Amino acid sequence: ECVASSPVDTVAIRGAPVQLNCSAQSDTGSPPRVEWKKDGTFLNLASDERRQLLADGSLLITSVVHSKHNKPDEGVYQCVASIESLGIIASRTARLSVAGLPRFSGPLEPAEVRQGDSRVMSCEVNADLAPFTRWERDRQPLELDQRVVQLPNAALVVSNASASDVGQYRCVLESVGPTKASEEAELRLLSESGVERKPEFLLRPSALARVAGESALLSCVVSGYPTPQVRWLRGDSPIEDGERFDLVGGGSLQILNLTEEDAGVYSCVTDSGNETIEAQAELSIRARPRFLKAPSNIYAHESMDIIFECEVTGSPPPTVKWVKNGDAVIPSDYFKIVNEHNLQVLGLVKSDEGFYQCLAENEAGNIQASAQLVILDHAPAGGRGPVPSAPRDVVASLVSTRFIKLTWRPPAEPHGDNITYSVYHRLEGAGRERVQNTSRPGELQVVIQNLMPDTRYTFRVIAHNRNGPGESSAPIVVATQPEVQVPGPAPELQAVSVSPTSVMVSWGKPLTGNGEIQTYKVYYMEKGVDGEQDVDVTGLSYTITGLKKFTNYSFRVVAYNKHGPGVSSEDIAVRTLSDVPSAPPQNLTLEVQNSRSIMVRWQPPPSDTHNGELVGYKIRYRKGARKSDATDTTVSGRLFQLIDGLERRTEYTFRVSALTVNGSGPPTDWATAETFESDLDESRVPDVPTSLHVRPLVNSIVVSWTPPENQDIVVRGYVIGYGIGSPHAQMIKVDHKQRFYTIENLDPSSYYVITLKAFNNVGEGIPVYESAITRPQSDPIDPDVDLYELFHAPYTPVPDPSPMLPPVGVQASVLSHDTIKVSWADNSLAKNQKITDSRYYTVRWKTNIPANTRFKIANTTTLNHMVTGLKPNTLYEFSVMVTRGRRSSTWSMTAHGTTFESIPSSAPKDVTVVSKEGRPRTIIVNWQPPSEANGKITGYIIYYSTDVSAEVHDWVIEPVVGNRLTHQVQDLTLDTTYYFKLQARNSKGMGPMSEAVQFRTPKGKEGWGGGDTRRSSAPPCVPGKGGVTGGGENHILVIIIIISVGVFTIVVVLVGAFFCTRKRAATKSATSSHKHKSGSKDLKPPDLWIHHERLELKPMDKSPEPNPVMTDTPIPRSSQEITPAEGTAENPIQRRNSYRGESVAVERSAPPRRGMRPKIVMPFDTQPPQHPLPGSAQPVLPSDHPEPEGSSHGSASEESSSYHPPTAHVRPTHPLKSFAVPPVRRTAGAAGGSVPGPHRVIISGPPAQLKTASIGTLARTRPPVPVIVPSAPDVSETSKMLEEAESKDELSEEMAHLEGLMKDLNAITTA
Where, by residue number, does the polypeptide cross the bilayer (predicted)? Predict the structure, then answer.
């Protein structure tokens, strides 16, 4: 027997008929008898004229009666079905409510609304009549849309009002009976005056309770000028428009297909200029009761113990009660509720037979499940052979207060082996008997547990062989012992918290001490923690110290006498007093919203440091790093606060501390942020998108792009145009957050032109164009398609000549970040959608990123399927087809669902750290977004420390707001190694940290002006202008002296080399000739030509070096052209413009401005060191081979051996090769013990500023990569090289190179 259909909650109209459905079925063949209960009492339908019992068991009320003092039909109904000799079963309960009279409680008021503003018009009806209302304008039904919305309370919201909204409005009430309309009220449109009006709420959201699976509308209507922008938050997470969330009526939030995860506090926030207002409401989600385990039928013998299992869930947790044959089960000694909701029946008797129902109910609804208990008869004794005689000598060998041990001897006539025994026991005089079996054959004892002290019980034993149970032994009566005379419980137990770490416990003397009390033991335990502690006390009170602050503890007391411990008192719970928090809030971040406001976010302190209930947070902020003029503000109930009214382009510091009722705890470290100089601009159209990429397929083209470079202009979306030969045939608009789109339904082998442009409220920006040819239909292989797809194509059955209808109403319900539930309906099934044949459904799904992703499929025999293992924050499309036998349908219409966001599962990548030009205490950190962001990245956190093994909370934190990929870290210590890590953040939380990147700041030398504070502001020297800035005439004199000394030294070397050559010419003529021929071929430098306007060296033939160092040298000069030295143009082979091992670099900026001249930069030995980073380009010469003669070893002094030249700016488009020159002999006459090369000038006085820039790549912008020019070797290596150059050949070659150097010097001095 079962109830096939149960009644449901119904709203009826007074005077109208209503029907409550109910039907019952039985397997016995005889139809069950159906009756109805109202409010727990059976209805007498035989004599009732208005209520009728229909043939299927449903209840029909022909005319509902309802008045103020007479409500006979309103109440709770229940259908009861019974079959004689089997039992009774009841349906779930259903409430019948009667709607009030169709009337309006107040007139409709005329209203005015300004152009573009919002207005709310109320319809004054009872809440139960709101579902029966609609609106008319000018006596015509009003069409509702996203802009004009009817709220659940029947009110009408008109947003973004225009002239089309003007008219006569009225509210119409439609129910069973005549239609009733309210009086008409006019809505007039006023022109906007242009005067700013502060935003104000016309309608605030209110607390709402809904059932999971239903829809909810949180009302929020705001008025003001300029038109306020409304956004919603759940907790502190913003809500984006999506599959289930939609903004309607200008600001109200509609949520479809509610889930329990949607519950929470929702905030309606509106911003207009510098004004921000907020209203909150809580959305409660109730889930109807649902069985996790329903009771099942049980077949048992008398005297046995049985358990009906019932496990339910729901929100709020449902209450459970048991019913037997329609009557409530009252717990007793034999009917017990165990394990929360299970029903245990002890010692079955025949009258226990029947139907048992588990009824679960909460505020969202109620359900029931039934099971039948059948008592089986014992097989007749002796039917299959002899049975054992009665067991002998049954005695109670051990009697205690709560258990008895029985022993016996085997029967005199067992009639077989493997004899088992059953022990029956009952309270003396009771009719219900319980049974306990021995655990193994041949066992002659059993222990009966859970007895009551000082109580008489009757016991008997029966033996069983393979033929069945035998004769029963004679019953014996045994009384359990009384309890030992120990003390009773201590009365008047009290526990009072006297401080945050101590509790005083007091109690009274036990009423039944049973002798002198020797001591007391106080037991206490922290709630939720295993392990009880105790302390011995001789008095009647004790103060326990050393407890945790604001923590729940339980206490109990046990009295001891000479017999031992007595009965424990009941536990008493108390919580220690609160205190101020002992730790600051965590993860303080600052997000600059605009030029006037900064959003402050944080996380609570660790839970074990709260020391009380957190009542709020105190935010202190001040301008810059000043100690005074700080402003305090207090926040409660949220973990963020928008600080507005700030000054533009101003640095502010913030810190946050947690508050309890006792005060504020320690604050966080100061965090700094700077407001923007200006807000986003919407006074002009957006710039052109920075890139547009297309990827053609057979019938589609995947379009991807990047936003405009200027991020200061508002972009509200993108317009994609496409067509064959012209981009104006079709237009598609997409959201401003979108970065890709797939154009579908294209023709194969066709030439399409695609255009993309950004737009905002001002208009559309400049388009970018691209073209593509779709692939031919016969194209068999997509080179980017996974090989698996080529050999394992998705299963698509061959359609039957008469295919089945495809499933309809496909819906994709997002459940989590990796799970979507797909459900559908099948029109080829009966109305109840019950599957009775062998059909099955195939679900396929895929995502469009990348575009060639193949479908995944799964088969199911139900009308829904749970798709798991999806990627977070990813749009998936789903479709379904049905297959029965050899017939299959086509694929259904697609449904789409975007999985929820999840925390990033990978760290930011390509993290690099470089120095900032001219500021050694400042570095620039660059990175790329994580590969698996799992959502929109809302910021990054930079951790840096000088100890790579330090705990994370000991690292310094620098927050980065938004999707920026670069950040400056300032005020670092010079000549110190730092380690940097990055962590990405989205709306769900923080992702993993990147690997630590090492960087060492430069040493603090004079050339840097002592850090950032004493940097020279004088411009660099300009040759040809008659002086050196900052040094005056003395600097020119120093330059002339140094150059003169260098020239003199070179002349002496030349004369000495000339005479040595003549002496050795005769003896080495033969070998040197051959050696000169072979060596000159290798040493011949490449032909060069010089572009004097750009001063860029370009090779005319291939460089002999396998890995040349590519540098550029910007040479500042006067506006006049530098006249090259005599012979330079005629013999460019002897010209040397770049030297290995030196710090003069050629910098090429692309493109150069018109009229600009390159500048000469003279680096000093006092430049700070630049340490190479991993991946830096450093040419390395093998140590076991001599240096080629063409390489130059700079003559830097030993003091400057640690010197590393600064990074060079390298452009890969026009690389220049660095050609080496032979070494110059070291002389003692040079200042500082070093002889600079002919291109290197030592100048005392203010340093020149050496600019370093980032490295550009051909296709995209990458973080700066330092290129380190190798430093000169030490003096000993140079000396060895010079000693090897004593032959005539080497000196001759050296003379040829030195002649070129002399010409270089002449060119510099004459300029």
Answer: 1036-1059
pLDDT class of 1244 with cuts at 50, 70, 90: very low
Q: Cα 642–643–644 angle (5° rounding)?
A: 110
What is the DSSP code string of 742-791? EE-SPPTT-EEEEEEEEE-SS-B---EEEEEEPPPTT----TTS-HHHHH
Q: What average pLDDT does this structure show over 750-773?
A: 91
Instruction: Provide the pLDDT for residue 790.
Output: 38
3-state DSSP call for residue 113? strand
> Does residue 232 come out as left (phi exceeding 0), alpha (psi in the -120 to 50 range) or beta?
beta
3-class DSSP state for residue 652? strand
Where do we find the tokens 């051996």?
1201
Q: Which of 71-75, 76-80, 374-378 has the lowest mean pLDDT?
A: 374-378
Q: Give burial (CB, 10 Å; 0-12/13-18/19+) of 281.
A: middle
Cα–Cα distance, 274 to 228 (Å, whole number) = 11
The stretch 1149-1153 carries a mean pLDDT of 38
- Contact (Cβ atoms closer than 8 angstroms) between residue 252 and residue 149: yes
Residue 625, beta-bridge partner list: none
195's tokens: 């005067």
Per-residue model confidence (pLDDT) at position 1103: 40
Distance of CA 786 to the CA centre of its chain: 30
**Where on the phi/psi map is residue 372: left (φ > 0), alpha (ψ -120 to 50), or beta?**
beta
| pLDDT tens digits, one per residue of 1282-1298 | 444 444 555 666 676 67
Q: How is residue 96 written in tokens?
A: 């019948």
Binning pLDDT at 50, 70 and 90, where does residue 155 land?
Answer: confident
- Report CA torsion sign: 1294, 1295, 1297, 1303: positive
| 943-978 exposure pattern, b = at least 16 Cβ within 10 A, e = fewer | bbbeeeeeeeeebebbbbbeeebebebeebebeeeb
> 1160: number of CA atoms within 13 Å, CB side?
16
Residue type, 170: R
Do 113 and 197 meet the contact criterion of CB atoms below 8 Å apart? no
**1167: pLDDT strictly greater than 60:** no
pLDDT, mean over the chain: 77
Separation in Å, CA 73 to CA 6, 13, 21, 40: 18, 11, 16, 14
- Which amino acid appears at position 1020 of this protein? P
Give the closest residue to 1224 by CA, choosing from 1162, 1278, 1188. 1278
**Quick one: pLDDT at residue 715?**
83
DSSP notation for 880-902: EEEEETTEEBPP---EEEEPPP-
| Alpha-carbon span 42 to 49, nearest angstrom | 16
Q: Higher model confidence: residue 1269 or residue 901? A: 901
690: Cβ contacts below 8 Å, ≥ 6 apart: 705, 706, 707, 708, 709
Strands 564-565 and 552-561: antiparallel
Which has the closest alpha carbon to 222: 169, 188, 271? Answer: 271
pLDDT given for residue 225 in this prediction: 84
Residue 1045 CA, distance from chain mean position: 69
Q: How far apart are CA 737 and CA 1119, in angstroms?
A: 49
How would residue 1055 be classed by pLDDT, with cut points 50, 70 and 90? confident
**Spatial distance between the Cα atoms of 569 and 557, rounded to a whole number of angstroms:** 6
pLDDT the model gives residue 1011: 39
Smallest CA-to-CA distance from 1303 within 1173, 1158, 1139, 1137 is with 1137
Give CA–CA dist 519/536, Å, rounded: 7
In this predicted structure, the answer to whether residue 822 has a pLDDT above a threshold of 70 is yes
Residue 1153 in tokens: 């401005």
pLDDT tens column, 606-619 = 988 999 889 999 99
At 45, list the tokens. 């339908």
